[in-house]
Amino acid sequence: MSFSSAKTARSSGKPPVLTNPVRYPESASAPMRSKRAWMLLLLTLVLPGSAQLVAGNRRLGRLALRCTFAAWLLVIAAVVLALVSRETLLNLFTNPWTSLLLVVLMAAAAVGWAAVFVNTFAIIRPGLLAPGMRGVVTGALVVLMVATSGSLGYGAYLVNTGRNAISSIFGGGPDMAPVDGRYNFLVMGGDAGAGRSGRRPDSIIVVSVDAKSGQASTISIPRNLQNAQFSPGSPLWKVYPQGYNCGDNCIINFLYTDVTDNHKNLYPKAPDPGASAMMDAAGGILGLKIQGYVLVDMAGFSKLIDALGGVTIDAGGWVPISGDDPNGDGHHLPPTGWISPGVHKLDGYHALWYARSRQWVLEYSRSQRQQCIQQALLKQMDPATVLTKFNAIADAGTKVIESDIPAGQLGSFVSLALKAKGHPLTRLTIGPPDFPVEFSTYPDFAKINSRVQSLLHPAPAAPASPKPAAPAAPAAPAAPKTSDAGTSGSAAPASPVTPSAPAATTPSSAPPVTQAYLQQLAVNGDDTDLVALLANNGTCTAP
């Protein structure tokens, strides 16, 4: 039909013959209608709004396309920012206001995309499709809506979950500045119980991270260390002018409860006076400025490990899962189980026991195992693990972790944590095997400070100087070759990393060490042999 005849038809009130099958499918064949339906679905999937522009409401199409292009610009900007300044991008994601804006935008995009798909379905006019094709197209549309709008909606939910977790766990104070190029955090683990005042941190570890490279070191302070000193200017000096030095009643892990119960007024602005006191004590002991703390409820620690899907360690010795202490005097019933030497993927229950068990061993073996668990978690906390288990991790974290680290700076510390994975984690224990057993009772703080500085700022290894060639001795037989380690020109400096504990010595008359044999020794009350057999259970590596 010519243009003039079409104009005549319109003026006479008769419908024109519509030959554009995309916009007017009535005149198209059944195969053409099917192709049109799939084309419109594909356009809505790839470029929301384009289907409306070619076959529907053009005004709606232009609006949807503008939103689509704006979304792509934001995505491209995020990718560029990730390449140029990952830390800035992480700070934007962890900031409570920008993350709220992101949640709103993602939710709006999810609703808008779903609305465009519904409108596309109306444009397709499924009543014009062949009966068998109607169900296929309808099913495809539902799948595409779930894959697109559903994913965006779930993403908004995850971002909001993370936002709430960050607000619940972390503080809202000003940003921290590195001291001497490092961030130093106190990580404590203890049982919260029903009342906060009874908490005593059994695990006391300072994590020091280089602010540029992310190189991390951990320093374990034994819970039974006495005569703790405090940071310069600490209010604790007013109450304990000679340090926390009243003997067995003043081991360091009692300080948390002491300040919480009796000296809250020393830290009037602190949300947790006990944690602030422990920071001052750890800083005074190590000669460091402690800038923040993380407090982990060890009773709920197992939930966090389970949320991560377990933690893999290579245990060097047998670790008992202690039985009950019915009388409360430290005399336990025989173990309810054992963690054997070798590589294990520990669930939360067994990881908690591995980190806390101290039956038949010194306190320091437990410190070594705790450091190992931390190192293993650092290695296994890759972005894929965190993203796939994010909701469970965030939920567990809000129940077991509290911290005064500012939420606004969290992105910077996440960036440092990612850098830390590229460096070996160095370790030091203020006790065996780095110091004598009695050191915790009579600590030499000058010696501790020196070892800490050697750990954090190791002297560069001196280059090997070539040795002058010795004159040939033809009459002498050829000497056997020595290893490379024995031919270096100068000895390497003493490593601050915790060395392995000596191997356990099995009694000469004892059968091979098995779980059944160890359990029988425990039933018999043979503590002497158990102490010898478990002496190496602090040795552990993160594979």
TrEMBL record:
<dbReference type="Pfam" id="PF03816">
    <property type="entry name" value="LytR_cpsA_psr"/>
</dbReference>
<dbReference type="InterPro" id="IPR050922">
    <property type="entry name" value="LytR/CpsA/Psr_CW_biosynth"/>
</dbReference>
<feature type="region of interest" description="Disordered">
    <location>
        <begin position="1"/>
        <end position="20"/>
    </location>
</feature>
<keyword id="KW-0812">Transmembrane</keyword>
<protein>
    <submittedName>
        <fullName>LCP family protein</fullName>
    </submittedName>
</protein>
<feature type="transmembrane region" description="Helical">
    <location>
        <begin position="136"/>
        <end position="159"/>
    </location>
</feature>
<feature type="domain" description="Cell envelope-related transcriptional attenuator">
    <location>
        <begin position="200"/>
        <end position="381"/>
    </location>
</feature>
<keyword id="KW-0472">Membrane</keyword>
<feature type="transmembrane region" description="Helical">
    <location>
        <begin position="37"/>
        <end position="56"/>
    </location>
</feature>
<dbReference type="InterPro" id="IPR004474">
    <property type="entry name" value="LytR_CpsA_psr"/>
</dbReference>
<comment type="similarity">
    <text>Belongs to the LytR/CpsA/Psr (LCP) family.</text>
</comment>
<feature type="compositionally biased region" description="Low complexity">
    <location>
        <begin position="472"/>
        <end position="512"/>
    </location>
</feature>
<keyword id="KW-1133">Transmembrane helix</keyword>
<feature type="compositionally biased region" description="Pro residues">
    <location>
        <begin position="460"/>
        <end position="471"/>
    </location>
</feature>
<feature type="region of interest" description="Disordered">
    <location>
        <begin position="458"/>
        <end position="512"/>
    </location>
</feature>
<feature type="compositionally biased region" description="Polar residues">
    <location>
        <begin position="1"/>
        <end position="11"/>
    </location>
</feature>
<feature type="transmembrane region" description="Helical">
    <location>
        <begin position="97"/>
        <end position="124"/>
    </location>
</feature>
<feature type="transmembrane region" description="Helical">
    <location>
        <begin position="63"/>
        <end position="85"/>
    </location>
</feature>
